[in-house]
Write a structure and sequence with these properties.
There is one protein chain. This protein is of the alpha/beta class and 347 residues long. The chain has twelve helices and twelve strands. The protein is globular, with a radius of gyration of 21 Å. The two termini are 27 Å apart. The C terminus is likely disordered.
């Protein structure tokens, strides 16, 4: 099988991004199934490497992923060697460096120079600029590879897949942002992703309510009766197997989530809290619904442990594995979905 070329963004250079990247790529198995291409700085990578024990692999510097050595880790230098590194501190310079890495990686992804994208954590404040005015990676990538609401934040682990209907919104804005059409669209994206990206033929999706006790038939809120239940009915008419709305607390407290292939939560923390409680160190953030494959670790910059050689690389490693799995699953789906009559007609 042809090796998958993985583009890796450095994220915030003052966080644990380089630590989890270097620890992951220190495993020789990585080079056996993929060609890693880091968008960042060889000098900054070496600085972080000095703080880590038992990191023995070598890397080569290149100017583009088109020059990547398939037998080594590659670094595309896109950040000045003079960029200051202040471990554990969010700075304007670290935000600028993160954006340069992300921008070049996205450009090369568009050109087909890399196959998939794995992003290290950014600081959503310091990265803000004229060219980045988004709440996070998800919205930035949606702007480049889709339209509004085309993407879906999907958190993935061995035990749970959970998506969120609304992403980075203040809690006070969630109710007004929820509409029947939005929920139906997110359910369609989720179903399509489960089929094409995860090779699940008939996925079962659980849908959470917005209010405590899923509204208690209107006593604690009308969003379930007015928005969520009508959305579920329309989704079912479209062939989406979805059940709900479930009260979120009891749903996770009783392990009901184990009976479904995925869960759709209504807002960020409703999905993130149970997910990170279950899979904080091993889970993966996947941006579903786009033409490209992008994953990231489930954790953030973790400034408090930067430079201490204690960050776990499990989540980042799983992000790389998942990106490759999805890339292969999409290839397989495209192959089995081909119209055999069309091939015959060409002959």
């Amino acid at each position: 099988m042809e090796k998958i070329k993985i583009g890796i963004t450095q994220g915030d250079i003052n966080g644990i991004g380089y630590e989890v990247i270097l620890k992951t790529l220190n495993d020789n198995q990585m080079q056996e199934f993929c060609t890693p291409v880091i968008y960042g700085s060889a000098k900054i990578a070496s600085l972080h490497r000095k703080n880590l024990e038992a990191i023995n692999f070598n890397y080569t510097t290149i100017s583009s992923a088109t020059e990547a050595n398939p037998r080594q880790t590659n670094i595309v230098n896109c950040v000045s060697d003079e960029t200051p590194v202040s471990l554990g501190q969010p700075t304007k310079e670290s935000g600028e460096a993160a954006l340069k890495s992300l921008t070049l990686a996205v450009d090369e992804l568009k050109k087909g120079h890399i196959d998939v994208l794995v992003t290290a954590p950014i600081n959503k404040d310091t990265i803000q600029s004229e060219n980045f005015h988004f709440p996070g990676h998800t919205e930035f990538l949606e702007n480049h590879f889709g339209n509004k609401n085309d993407s879906l934040m999907l958190m993935v682990s061995e035990k749970l897949r959970i998506a969120v209907a609304t992403t980075h919104l203040p809690l006070k804005n969630v109710s007004s942002a929820l509409t029947k059409d939005l929920i139906v669209k997110k359910l369609q994206i989720l179903k399509d992703s489960l089929v094409k990206d995860f090779a699940i033929n008939l996925p079962r999706i659980a849908v959470l309510g917005l209010n405590p006790h899923a509204g208690d038939n209107g006593v604690l809120g009308m969003e379930e009766k007015d928005i969520i239940i009508p959305a579920l009915k329309e989704a079912e008419e479209k062939g989406i197997l979805c059940v709900g709305p479930f009260p979120a607390d009891g749903f996770f407290g009783s392990d009901s989530f184990t009976k479904f292939d995925a869960v759709l939560a209504m807002y960020h923390d409703q999905g993130m809290i149970p997910f990170k409680n279950i899979a904080m160190e091993s889970g993966v953030n996947y941006t579903a619904g786009l033409s490209i494959v992008r994953t990231s670790p489930a954790h953030g910059t973790a400034y408090d442990i930067t430079g201490k050689d204690i960050a776990s690389e499990s989540s980042f490693r799983n992000a790389m594995w998942l990106a490759c799995d999805i890339f292969r699953n999409r290839q397989q789906y495209a192959e089995i979905s081909k119209n055999p009559l069309a091939a015959t007609d060409k002959k």
